[in-house]
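Q: I'm writing up a methods section and want to include an example of the input and output format. Could you take the sequence below and give the corresponding predicted structure tokens, formatted cleanly so I can copy it straight into the document?
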Amino acid sequence: MIPGRTARTYLARGLTVVELRGDIDIATLPAARLHLEAVTARPFPVLLVDLRPVAFFGCQGLRLLLAAQWRTLQQRGRLYLVCDSPQILRLLDIVGLLALFQPAPTINQALADTGALNATLRRPPRRAWSGRGRTPEGEDESAT
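A: Here is the clean output for your methods example:
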């Protein structure tokens, strides 16, 4: 793997994508970490991590993903994962992280998942009922 080619960051439909490539091991971890830390340093990051070009992914890769997830949650953001590798999916399953990351097999599927989440987040919150005047459903209490 060519140095500096372990990761690249780009935008896809307004979402930040960090694509990891090649071997994610102790030698390439610092470069990959730089990309993920830059994205997760902002408030409310929405990040998609693409593991499809990854050839090797072991304990250092798991550590990298968990750190990115933790930083994303600290900043009140959301991390999505794209992965179609049976070996990586099996590793995530064995260590109990498959349910946490819920990887999508393609970027389009992950973007569709983010669209459904974003539509839910954009919905205006229901106003709390104060107990007087109109009920939450809009009916006038005094008329009953």
